[in-house]
What we know:
4 strands, rod-shaped, two-stranded antiparallel ribbon
Amino acid sequence: MAKFFLFIVVLAVIYWLVRASNRRSKPPPATGMPEPMTQCAHCGVHFPRTESLSEGERDYCCEDHRRLGVRS
Ligand SMILES: [Zn+2]
C-alpha cells in the first residue's frame, strides 16, 4: 500500500512539472484587442495600422515610402 501511495505521489509530481514547463513555454498573454495590420503600399511590409502613414486609401510604413509612393 505504501508503494502504491508513492507511485501516486510520483505521478502527481511529474504531472505538476509538465504543467509548469508548459506554462513557461507559452507566449505572454496578448494585451487588449489584437492590433489591426496594414501593408505598406511601397515596400509591402506588414505593420500595425496605428503606426501607418496614410495617403488617400494607401498606407505607408514611413515618411520616405509615403513620399516615394506606390512602387511600380
Ligand atoms: Zn515601406
